[in-house]
Write a structure and sequence with these properties.
- By secondary structure, this protein is α+β, with helices and mostly antiparallel strands.
- The protein is 38% helix and 34% strand.
- The protein has 2 helices and 4 strands.
């Protein structure tokens, strides 16, 4: 896997990778991460096409997904009472 770019964002880390003719978009926020795989053939302008894909609307959806992921994890964690001293 080859790192192509890291994009600045105030809420999470965005890294773009290339592997097996796919672009992999990795979004990280604390202990959570989201990955999206896109065939290079589906993006007409290469890495610039990926940059265009990561717009305000998409990053807002990623942020909302992180919020839901965190909420679900906290609920599951509390249900099983995993408390560290």
């Amino acid at each position: 896997m080859r790192t192509l770019a890291e994009l600045p964002h105030p809420d999470f880390k965005i890294t773009i990778f290339s592997m097996n003719q796919k672009f992999i978009l990795k979004f990280e926020q604390g202990t959570l991460e989201q990955n999206y795989k896109i065939a290079e053939a589906d993006i007409t302008d290469g890495i610039n096409g990926v940059f265009q894909l990561i717009d305000d609307e998409f990053t807002a959806a990623v942020s909302a997904c992180f919020n839901e992921m965190r909420k679900s994890f906290i609920q599951a964690y509390k249900k099983h009472e995993y408390w560290f001293i």
